[in-house]
Amino acid sequence: MYHTHVKDVKGMDLPGRVWKMLVGPSAGGCKNMVFGIVEFPADSKPTAHQHGKEEEILYVISGRGEMIIGTERRRLETGVAVYIPPLVDHQVIVEGGEPLVLSCVFSPPLTPGSYDRKDP
Length: 120
Known about the structure:
Blueprint: E1 12-14, E2 17-23, E3 34-40, E4 55-62, E5 64-69, E6 72-77, E7 81-84, E8 90-95, E9 100-107
Antiparallel strand pairs: 1-2, 2-3, 3-9, 4-7, 4-9, 5-6, 5-8
């Protein structure tokens, strides 16, 4: 068993967001997935990205905005869950003057930020 609290986890500064890995291969020994919390600043619009082979599930804890997944746009608000398949571009747009906080699960596990597009 492994137990942790989000306040005890150091955040990783990624482009346009802060990501905290709560459970994964390097945090608790979970072999087949990664679970974390990501916070996007108020009124932000980080660039789109995709994951090579990983599925992702997001759940909105607080805040609101919009998710662009491929060519679809979906509202994000507390209580909404989103599934993102591998190799699909997706982008978060934060609205409403407050941060957007999401829980996220990746399977298979990945290194947070390894999928972000690099500026030329």
